[in-house]
Amino acid sequence: QAVLHRISQSHLRDPMRHDFHQLTASLRLFLFPLLQTLDVEIYNHLMEAGVEEPFFALSWILTWFSHEVRDTESSKRLFDAFLCGHATMPFYASIA
């Protein structure tokens, strides 16, 4: 129980707030600049399509990709990486 409390205060802090304003702000700060640097083609496509809010990535961050990745072993490996890494690791995985 202590471990879950600690994780909720660090790695899951933004997704566990009463609304998603902080999480979407964090996604805007991380996701779009990283895309602009690492994958200009996708970034330009999103901008041309008028995507200003990163709502498409919310479920990835909220569920640590477990909603999208159907392979249990892959999900376990992602959870391990996210728990062992920095709290921003799911944001970087979103770019991959």
Describe the protein in words.
By secondary structure, the chain is mostly helical. Helices cover 64% and strands 0% of the residues. The protein has six helices and no strands. The chain has helices at residues 2-9, 21-38, 40-48, 58-63, 72-84, 89-95. Helix 2 crosses helix 3 and helix 2 (21-38) packs across helix 6. The longest helix is centred in the first third of the chain and has 18 residues, at 21-38. The chain is globular and about 45 Å long. The protein starts with a helix and ends with a helix.
Topology:
Blueprint lengths: L1 H8 L11 H18 L1 H9 L9 H6 L8 H13 L4 H7 L1
Helix pairs in contact: 2-3, 2-6
Main β sheet profile: none
Quote the beta fraction: under 5%
Question: Which assembly state applies to the chains in this document?
Answer: single chain
The string of secondary-structure elements, in order, is: HHHHHH
Low-confidence parts, pLDDT < 50 over ≥5 residues?
none
For the CA atoms, what is the radius of gyration? Answer: 14 Å
